[in-house]
Amino acid sequence: MKILNSYSKNFDRLLDNLLLERKKKLKSSSVSVTKIINDVKKNGDKAILKYEKKFNKNTIIVPSVNQINKSIKSLDEKVKKAIDDAYHRIYKFHSLQKFKNISYKDKYKNKIDYKYLPLDSVAIYVPGSTASYPSTVLMCAIPAIVAQVKRIVMINPGYKGKQNPAVLYAAKLCGINEIYSIGGPSAISAITYGTRKIKPVNKIVGPGNEYVAAAKREVFGDIGVESMFCGPSEVTIVCDKKSNPEWIASDLVGQAEHSELVQCILISKDKNIIQKTKREIFKQANEIPRSTIAKKSLSKYGMLLHVNSDKKIIEIINKIGPEHLELNIKNYKSYIPKIKSSGSVCLGKYAVMSMTDMGAPGSNHVLPTNMSSKYSSGLNVSEFMKKISYITLTKFGIESLGPSAITLANYEGLKAHAKSIVKRIRRK
Known about the structure:
The protein is of the alpha/beta class. About 45% of the residues lie in helices and about 15% in strands. Strand 2 (about 100-105) and strand 3 (about 110-120) form a beta hairpin.
């Protein structure tokens, strides 16, 4: 892992370069992604099947009800119970995000109604193949359910024709009956443009690797996507001399096992805790099943930052804009008002990011990555709703406000605009 010291003159330049390197990697355009999207757009199911065979050794696009039920039956009851518990917590929290319509009337009795309407259809992308994330099903589907979206579709790549039973159980719990065993850019293209077997949707949400993220950017405009950049994961942890290095290391390694493109950053004013945590990181990274992935992530994008002040630490956090932030420090309350960019913030030594990933508190784990927390938020109910204004103007209203609007239209050189107003207030 790279070690940077804020006492060094070139600290800011080195940090900027390291952050920019990953940012460019994740946002680089991919010729292969564009080619796949256009192939599916042109050749439909035939192209999807070709890519499924190539990348997932899969020949099934639409799993049967019997296949789904058979898979769910094999799931351990303890896992089902854990998914049930997470569902209720996530649903309860997201139910608090409901919006109220606005109705406004001015002194001229002109009226504006501002109404929230659910999208007609959405697709949730749940990473799969060799991994399984039932928690992501809940995180993506429940806000859509609360928003009252009529049609929710799940895209989840299987491997050798099999999808994860926990993912399928979570989908069933959420009332999702339309499930496709596909993944990657070809799946994004299919759900955007439609095929014989797959009907397109209005919007797609959910995390994915760099290829899925690139595909979403490619099709945006033809379909809606999240307002955030939703790519490979990130965590930044701030610790002090009283932090437990074993705990901190486990948090970093836990995030690093997701993929080789994960970004794990540790920040502290205490040099000793950094060294102790570093030793723990590599000890623990060797002890997990996904050791190779975690170690590549940590060596490529991991950083240990020795920083000289709280002010500088806060500046760095806001620069990074991490997906997950853990404040494993005694004085975390003083940081809260000053942190402007982060997907979510875990406060104190017991608020561990892994708990939020599994839906334990009920907050959402589909969060902005690659610095997009500077302008966007985590997945929420509003992502599944649109807003429409309904305007009613009275005769008195247009006669009173019209002259001002005519003046502005003429100033902007829009003579036809002005005339359309004049015609309605011209007196006989």
